[in-house]
Amino acid sequence: MQYEVNPAGTRFESRTAMLCILIIAGILAVQSLVLASMGRLLICACGEVKLWYPNAAGPETSQHLTDWYTFSHFIHGLIFYFFLWLVVPRAPFWVRLGLAVGLEAVWEIVENTPMIIDRYRQSALAEGYFGDSVVNSLADTVAAILGFLFARIVLVWVSVMLLVALEVFVAYMIRDNLTLNIIQLIYPTEAISRWQVGS
């Protein structure tokens, strides 16, 4: 049996994809401009742009392209995929991707407000935190996009297992992860802070 291809449908999908890509680029541009207007540095004050910065408690965390917290943003993408799949299941994939990028960009901006930065500093591992560089923030958004795309192409259980594995791995490596980050942001706990510094 031969299947007919609907040229009109194909053209519509192509236009939708192209429009969403342009919107995503626009969101990233707005994210950069807003962060710059908030006083965020374009790159690390050290003058370098490193692919990976390994010291989670170091002064250059959240200043380079990737660090241990990049895994959290990848997990954002996994979560956004399933959240939007539940909320707007009939929306085209590209529309849901655009919405996910918008959500991540909003969080990146909120995360760099003085209120949230001060809240983070109440955590033992983030006492020296002063916000993300623009480059790091954009890289975090790209990590969320990669997580979203990954969730699109694998089975649900693979995404769930990867999410759990990443949380356990990062917690083991740096005594922090997305779950602990959320807990310490909403309700800072002294016991968690003591564990994080190894006391």
Task: Indicate the overall shape.
Answer: globular
* Low-confidence regions: 1-5
What is the string of SSEs from the N terminus onward? Answer: HEEHHHHHHH
Number of domains: 1
Mean pLDDT: 91
Overall number of strands = 2
Assembly annotation: single chain
Main β-sheet, spatial strand arrangement? 1-2
Helix percent reads 55-70%
Question: What layout of secondary structure does this protein have?
Answer:
Elements: H1 7-37, E1 52-53, E2 66-67, H2 70-87, H3 93-111, H4 114-120, H5 134-153, H6 156-174, H7 178-186, H8 190-196
Helix pairs in contact: 1-3, 1-5, 2-3, 2-5, 2-6, 3-5
Describe the structure.
The chain starts with 6 loop residues before the first helix and ends with a helix. It has helices at 7-37, 70-87, 93-111, 114-120, 134-153, 156-174, 178-186, 190-196; strands at residues 52-53, 66-67. It has one domain (49-196). Residues 1-5 have low confidence and may be disordered. Strands 1-2 form a two-stranded parallel sheet. The protein is 65% helix and 2% strand. It contains eight helices and two strands. It is mostly helical and 199 residues long.
